[in-house]
Design goal:
With 162 residues, this protein is an all-beta fold. The protein has no helices and six strands. The protein has a three-stranded antiparallel sheet with strand order 1-2-3, with no helix packed on it. It has a three-stranded antiparallel sheet with strand order 4-5-6, with no helix packed on it. It is elongated and about 60 Å long. The termini are close together.
Length: 162
C-alpha cells in the first residue's frame, strides 16, 4: 500500500461486482439462523440458540466463534459471543444484490489537477483502485504528489485501497 493519504485498494479489471449479499437487519423482529458449530462466523454475525436466545459474534474474539457454543457454561466459551436477548419468528433478508449496469469496471484515473472529496474513487495505472477517505483526512487527497494514491510517500493518510 501507499503511505499517508492513499491506501492501495487493489487491482481492478472488468466490471464492478454486485452489491453485498442480503443481510439480516438487527433491529427487525424475528430470529437469526440457529448456531451451527464449525460455521465460519465472523464478528457481527448473529445466531439463535434453542430457537430464541440471540447472540452476536464479538469482533475481538471472532476467531473463536466457529468453535465456541454461545451461552455454553464451559469457562471461556462465552467470550466469543455476546448475548443480545430473545427473539420470536424468523428474520426476513434484505433486498437481493443489484448490479448497476451504468457503473464502469474501474474508476477514472487519478489526476492531480482534480479536487477530490470524501468517498471519491480513482484508478492508478489503470489497475489499482483507491478511495479518498470519508473522514477529516480526506483533505490530504489534494495535498500534492507526496499524498498521491499508491505512489506518494504519505498515500495512506488520505486514500484507502479498494
Amino acid at each position: 500500500g501507499g503511505h499517508l493519504g492513499w491506501n492501495k485498494i487493489g487491482p481492478c479489471v472488468g466490471s464492478l461486482p454486485p452489491t453485498a449479499a442480503p443481510t439480516f437487519d438487527a433491529d427487525a423482529p424475528g430470529c437469526p439462523p440457529e448456531y451451527v458449530a464449525g460455521t465460519p462466523y465472523v464478528g457481527g454475525d448473529k445466531v439463535a440458540v434453542d430457537d430464541r436466545v440471540v447472540y452476536r459474534c464479538d469482533r475481538l474474539h471472532e476467531a473463536h466463534c466457529p468453535h465456541r457454543i454461545p451461552g455454553a457454561s464451559s469457562p471461556g466459551d462465552d467470550d466469543a459471543w455476546i448475548r443480545l436477548g430473545v427473539c420470536t419468528g424468523t428474520l426476513a433478508p434484505t433486498a437481493s444484490p443489484a448490479l448497476d449496469p451504468d457503473s464502469p469496471g474501474c474508476p477514472d484515473d487519478y489526476n492531480p489537477a482534480i479536487a477530490y472529496g470524501k468517498g471519491d474513487k480513482v484508478a492508478v495505472d489503470g489497475s489499482r483502485a483507491y478511495m479518498c477517505k470519508r473522514d477529516d483526512d480526506a483533505a490530504f487527497c489534494n495535498a500534492g504528489p507526496r499524498y498521491a494514491p499508491g505512489t506518494g510517500l504519505y498515500s495512506d493518510v488520505a486514500w484507502v485501497s479498494l
